[in-house]
Write a structure and sequence with these properties.
By secondary structure, the chain is α+β, with helices and mostly antiparallel strands. It is 22% helix and 31% strand. The protein starts with 26 loop residues before the first helix and ends with a strand.
Length: 160
């Protein structure tokens, strides 16, 4: 079982890599990957008092997999984002890979995400507001993009 000590931190070169799709033959591995993601997210919540979702590459699992747990657990396998709204909003973004740093970014107000659920079934979800920005953040992780790279300007950083 992976723990907080397995979480990749800012500067780890793996955080900047583009992840590979989860292959059909790897679907049986998803359950254990999600258990690891869930465990680390719970540890982050206990230690830092935040954490709504986590991307697999943050634990060195270089696969296109996102785990979200707000009201209930949701697994996003090979997600694809589309229908990004023209409307943007600013927020102070946080990240488990640099838990004490906040970064001011702009995110799309709404989007549509297509993905496979934990049973390999195709799903589509139209999101807006907080969920939209959360999934944009996690989706960026799958493409090797951190919110530090999306900072509005050089003054868009502050300590928690």
């Amino acid at each position: 079982m992976k723990t907080l000590s397995d979480l990749l931190l800012l500067g780890d070169p793996r955080l900047y890599e583009i992840c590979d799709p989860v292959l059909e033959a790897e679907l049986p591995l998803v359950k254990s990957w999600v258990a690891d993601l869930d465990n680390v997210m719970k540890e982050i919540r206990l230690k830092y008092n935040f954490g709504r979702a986590i991307a697999a590459p943050q634990l060195g699992i270089m696969k296109r997999l996102i785990y979200m747990n707000i009201d209930k657990p949701v697994v996003f396998i090979n997600p694809e984002i589309g229908d990004l709204s023209d409307e943007l909003f600013e927020l102070w973004d946080d990240c488990m890979s640099f838990p004490n740093l906040l970064v001011k970014v702009k995110r799309h107000s709404s989007l549509t995400i297509k993905y496979l659920d934990e049973n390999g079934q195709p799903q589509v979800w139209k999101m807006d507001g907080a969920l939209s920005e959360l999934l944009q953040h996690e989706y960026d992780h799958l493409n090797g993009v951190l919110c530090t790279m999306r900072a509005i300007d050089g003054k868009s950083f502050k300590w928690r």
